[in-house]
Amino acid sequence: MNDGSCFHNLKAGGIVRELAPGVTARVFPGVNAMLSVVTLEPHSTSPVHSHANEQWGVCLEGEWVRIQDGVEHHVKAGDFWQTPPHVPHGGRTLASRCVVLDIFAPPREEYRQAGQGLGAASLAT
Amino acid sequence: MNDGSCFHNLKAGGIVRELAPGVTARVFPGVNAMLSVVTLEPHSTSPVHSHANEQWGVCLEGEWVRIQDGVEHHVKAGDFWQTPPHVPHGGRTLASRCVVLDIFAPPREEYRQAGQGLGAASLAT
Q1: Confidence check: pLDDT of B125 > 80
Q2: Which residues are within 8 A (CB) of A12 and not within 5 positions of it... i.e. 6 or more apart?
């Protein structure tokens, strides 16, 4: 359902951002938090980066290699994780598609508009 | 998976709180946000209440009648919603069990400890 205000569905809507090749987000901004439904195509890479915003991720479909603080975690649907502020994180898919719900608190201000890339995050070097 | 730190699974763990009869939460506190996996038994009621914390809910399993700002919304798995600060909200299940992922930003401080009830929320009168 989507009545145009506070009610949405994970499958539709949101502000579209291409975070990386094959990694697309649909963003739903709030006041103190922001939700982002991220679809990751097979064999795609999310560059390791960091930001001051706390982040949580919930694997909704498929599986993913979550890279966090230099460690690889093989996560599957139903797994979820906290990424504290400033902790470097990214990931890569395997042979299948993956869907992850990201939660940012506070919101990532750059993600309030459609566009490309990881916004003001610091990329790992 | 659960490595004892930042990685969890929706089916296990967390700080247990009984929010209302038949409504049980497993709470995962963060810095700026808090996640809570809420299991609602059939024919259970979540009393309408409000608080300053922004809240988001994601219906993970089943269906629910979400009551928000005086309006009833019949939500199903895959639906999600924002509840802005101070907006009265609650709900009731129908004949089946429902699982909802609640997200609070900032965290509800009372929910950092096991216990009962809706904490410092204001109940509707």
Answers
A1: no
A2: A2, A26
Chain-chain contact of B32 with A35 (C-beta, under 8 angstroms) = no
The predicted-structure confidence for B64-93, as pLDDT tens digits, reads as follows 999 999 999 999 999 999 999 999 999 999
- Residues of chain A with Cβ-Cβ distance to B28 below 8 Å are 80, 82
Strands (E) in A42-117, as ranges, are: 45-50, 54-61, 63-68, 71-76, 79-83, 89-92, 98-105, 115-116
B115: which 2 tokens? Answer: 């216990």
pTM here? 0.94
Q: Two tokens at A87? A: 């902790």
The pLDDT value recorded for residue A33 is: 98
Alpha-carbon gap, residue A111 to A93, rounded angstroms? 22
A7–B73: do the CB atoms touch at under 8 Å? yes
Rounded Cα–Cα distance for residues A33 and B105 (Å): 6
Give contacts of A78 with chain B, Cβ < 8 Å. Answer: 9-11
Sheet holding A63-68, edge to edge: A71-76, A63-68, A89-92, A45-50, A122-123
Amino acid of residue B27? V
Q: Is the dihedral angle over the CA atoms B61, B34, A74, A100 positive or is it negative?
A: positive
Q: In whole angstroms, give the CA distance from residue A33 to residue A53.
A: 10
Say how far apart CA A33 and CA A80 lie, in whole Å: 17
DSSP E strands in chain B: the ranges are 7-9, 15-20, 23-29, 34-40, 45-50, 54-61, 63-68, 71-76, 79-83, 89-92, 98-105, 115-116, 122-123
Question: Residue A7: in which H helix or E strand, if any?
Answer: strand A7-9
| Token output for A56 | 């949580």
**Could you give the angle at the alpha carbon of A10 between the alpha carbons of B79 and B121, nearest 5°?**
50
